[in-house]
């Protein structure tokens, strides 16, 4: 086998999973990381509960990705069941939440990361932090900046797992794009995904910023309706439902400068039922009639924002508005504030083993690849799976030389 010294750059979930697979196969692995410690975005992902994967059947699971054909072979080899087994092997039990999402029992990423790093250390994986990759020297060495100046590192095989471009303070700043583009690697520009969108609310809505809009469904154009929760903010709107729709919303914003998000504020009753519930009765105030029909708080405020006062007792008009509530989104939140990034190294730039066609023996994995998915455990699953797949690619390519 030819690969003697494997360098992995980027110690997020993708890079560490590549190190896991390679070290388990007895390979000598060095991991280089720009930040003073590893897995910072992974730890951040664990702050609100680490949703590591999802329990739904593979046929549904794979449809969440924008490039299911590309990701299927990777996720087939490292699916939710294997992620659960891998965690268990590290002594980290998990559970399936009511929505089918899977979490470690302790919810946080830190205990899992600690055990994972300890296993990698036992297998001889060396981790070098504060090493920022700057590209290649003319002689083909990897070039890093460190606290002690520039360092050149020789590598038989390299796996790049440098992340996307969101939350740059956690390490993945997308600086690799210009390095690889200069080598002729085809890259789709990095764009915010799973992000909030801008809306110009009237001052009347201010008192509702930060309050959740619960049990609503939403859609964009012809795309499938999604159910979930959204939150109105000073800049616009965010939350699980908006993130789930961020791909079609982003496409509309890029195409026409704005996007139309439609909400069904009461998805569990029909428009006809709502008209009946909203019919004025006796001395009941408008507020009371609306509240009893399910339109109170943020939902009622939205109706008032949209409809002129002289329609507030028109049951048909209110019901139509509540069942197809239009919100014009005027832009995306910056990539810095997005949970993940779309875009990255294009499938065409890679071999089936995730090796760069232009740079033999350099592989790529994780969020830096050009795929996109909603939150719900799909991001981490694809990062683990592509990290493992790139590592197996290294083993296969090495075995044939
Ligand atoms: C707030 C938040 C919550 C999230 N919650 C979830 C969740 O619940 N479930 C889910 O599935 N996903 C979640 N995600 C997304 C998930 O964390 C990412 O998709 C995942 O961490 C990406 O893994 P990665 O290994 O590809 O990249 P990263 O985790 O970004 O790791 C890349 C590493 O490469 C290093 N690096 C970058 N450039 C260089 C360089 N030039 N030299 C050396 N090192 C470099 C970085 O410092 C970083 O450590 C969340 C993200 C955020 C921001």
3D structure, described in words:
The chain has 401 residues and is an alpha+beta fold. The protein has two domains: 248 residues, FAD/NAD(P)-binding domain (3-Layer(bba) Sandwich), CATH 3.50.50.60; 136 residues, no CATH class. It is 34% helix and 22% strand. It contains 14 helices and 20 strands. The strands form five sheets. A seven-stranded antiparallel sheet has the order 17-16-13-14-15-12-18. A five-stranded parallel sheet has the order 6-2-1-10-20, with helices on one face. A three-stranded antiparallel sheet has the order 3-5-4. The longest helix has 23 residues. The N and C termini lie close together (7 Å). The site of flavin-adenine dinucleotide (FAD) has 38 residues, from helix 1, helix 2, strand 7 and helix 14.
Assembly state of the chains shown: single chain
In the residues, how many domains can be counted?
Answer: 2
Strand content: 15-25%
Structural class by sheet pairing and helices: alpha+beta
Query: What is the strand arrangement across the widest sheet?
Result: 17-16-13-14-15-12-18
CATH fold category name of the largest domain: FAD/NAD(P)-binding domain
CATH architecture of the largest domain: 3-Layer(bba) Sandwich
Shape: elongated
Largest sheet: 7 strands, antiparallel
Helix amount? 25-40%
CATH class of the largest domain: Alpha Beta
Task: Give the low-confidence spans.
Answer: none
Distance between the termini: 7 Å
């Amino acid at each position: 086998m030819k690969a003697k010294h494997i360098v992995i750059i980027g110690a997020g979930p993708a890079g560490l999973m590549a190190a896991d697979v390679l070290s388990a196969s007895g390979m000598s692995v060095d991991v280089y990381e720009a930040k003073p410690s590893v897995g910072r975005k992974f730890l951040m992902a664990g702050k609100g509960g680490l949703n590591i994967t999802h329990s739904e059947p593979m046929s549904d699971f794979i449809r969440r990705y924008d490039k299911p054909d590309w990701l299927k072979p990777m996720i087939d080899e490292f699916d939710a069941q294997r992620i659960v087994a891998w965690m268990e092997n590290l002594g980290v039990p998990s559970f399936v939440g009511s929505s089918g999402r899977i979490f470690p029992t302790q919810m946080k990423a830190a205990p899992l990361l600690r055990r994972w790093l300890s296993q990698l250390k036992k297998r001889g994986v060396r981790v070098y932090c504060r090493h920022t990759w700057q590209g290649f020297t003319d002689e083909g060495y990897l070039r890093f900046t460190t606290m002690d100046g520039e360092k050149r590192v020789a590598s038989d095989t390299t796996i790049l797992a440098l992340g996307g471009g969101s939350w740059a303070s956690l390490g993945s700043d997308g600086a690799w794009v210009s390095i690889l583009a200069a080598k002729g690697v085809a890259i789709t520009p990095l764009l915010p995904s799973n992000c909030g969108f801008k809306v110009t609310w009237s001052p009347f809505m201010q008192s509702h910023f930060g309050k959740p809009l619960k049990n609503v469904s939403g859609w964009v154009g012809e795309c499938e309706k999604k159910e979930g929760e959204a939150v109105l903010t000073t800049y616009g709107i965010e939350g699980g439902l908006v993130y789930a729709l961020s791909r079609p919303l982003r496409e509309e914003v890029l195409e026409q400068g704005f996007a139309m998000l439609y909400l069904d504020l009461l998805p569990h009753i029909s428009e006809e039922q709502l008209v009946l519930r909203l019919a004025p009765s006796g001395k009941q105030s408008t507020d009371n009639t609306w509240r009893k029909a399910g339109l109170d708080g943020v939902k009622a405020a939205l109706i008032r924002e949209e409809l002129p006062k002289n329609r507030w007792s028109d049951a048909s008009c209110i019901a139509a508005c509540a069942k197809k509530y239009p919100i014009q989104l005027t832009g995306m939140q910056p990539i810095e504030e997005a949970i993940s990034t779309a875009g990255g190294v294009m499938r065409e730039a890679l071999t089936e083993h995730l090796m760069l066609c232009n740079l033999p023996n350099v592989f790529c994995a994780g969020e830096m690849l050009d795929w996109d998915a909603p939150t719900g455990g799909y991001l981490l699953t694809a990062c683990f799976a592509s990290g493992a797949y790139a590592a197996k690619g290294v083993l296969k390519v090495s075995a044939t030389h």
